[in-house]
């Protein structure tokens, strides 16, 4: 299950976000949403999950007649 | 007369999340004025040169407060707080000296998390550990 882990420092108000379980371009969509709400990340690090390829499988139904 | 300070390093990108944060701090929509270049007034009713697009009038703040404003910029809403209110609002909201802006930032951050969960149709699970609050959005 994908999740975003936010850490809020109550003393300074600083927010960090860690996107987990989201591979490839979908992670970029989450980033755009966060940037729209937070006004751009001051520091960004891509996790290994970002570089993981998204494999899509195509099933062909039916067979030889 | 307490002068206004514009906290240009603090920007709240989303108006909706800013309004949600203000509501969470005890300033509901009916206490928040929205418009274009609204004048700010000091505690004696004296008009100040500063203007803002989101304003909480002084009667809703603390004793002898000045208006609290948020000026709209291309990067978001920038708080405009008087010198006096930096301390007065910290006392009112029971945070450390000059801690009101930090508290507002933390409350805004929580509003952002709720908004992310809403848009992703997810759930928020909260954990607190000392002064750090962890919020996980699962979707």
Would you give an account of this structure?
The complex is a heterodimer of chains A (65) and B (139). Chain A has 65 residues and is α+β, with helices and mostly antiparallel strands. Chain A has helices spanning 25-38, 48-51; strands spanning 3-9, 15-20. Chain A has a two-stranded antiparallel sheet. The radius of gyration of chain A is 17 Å and the shape is elongated. The relative contact order of chain A is 0.19. Chain B is α+β, with helices and mostly antiparallel strands and 139 residues long. In chain B, 29% of the residues lie in helices and 36% in strands. Chain B has three helices and seven strands; from the N terminus they run βαββββααββ. Chain B has a five-stranded antiparallel sheet. In chain B, strands 6-7 form a two-stranded antiparallel sheet. In chain B, β4 and β5 (76-82) form a beta hairpin. In chain B, α1 (15-24) crosses α3. The chains are: A alpha+beta (65), B alpha+beta (139). The A-B interface holds A 1-15, 33-40 and B 11-14, 17, 75-76, 96, 99, 101-106, 108-110, 112-113, 115-116, 119-120, 122, 131-139.
């Amino acid at each position: 299950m994908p999740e975003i882990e936010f850490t809020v420092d109550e003393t300074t108000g600083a927010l960090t976000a860690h996107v987990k379980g989201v591979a490839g371009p979908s992670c970029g969509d989450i980033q755009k949403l966060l940037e729209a709400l937070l006004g751009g990340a001051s520091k960004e690090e891509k996790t290994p999950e970002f570089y993981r390829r998204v494999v899509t499988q195509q099933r062909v139904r039916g067979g030889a007649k | 007369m307490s002068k206004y300070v514009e906290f240009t390093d603090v920007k709240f990108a989303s108006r909706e999340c800013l309004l949600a944060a203000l509501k969470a701090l005890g300033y509901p929509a009916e206490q928040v004025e929205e418009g274009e270049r609204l004048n700010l007034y000091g505690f004696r009713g004296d008009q100040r040169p500063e203007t803002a697009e989101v304003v909480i009038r002084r009667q809703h703040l603390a004793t002898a407060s000045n208006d609290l404003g948020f000026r709209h910029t291309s990067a978001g809403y920038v708080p405009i707080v008087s010198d006096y209110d930096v301390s007065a609002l910290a006392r009112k909201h029971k945070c450390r000296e000059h801690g009101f802006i930090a508290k507002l930032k933390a409350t805004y951050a929580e509003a952002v998390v709720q908004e992310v969960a809403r848009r992703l149709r997810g759930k928020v699970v909260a954990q607190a550990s000392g002064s750090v609050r962890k919020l996980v959005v699962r979707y």
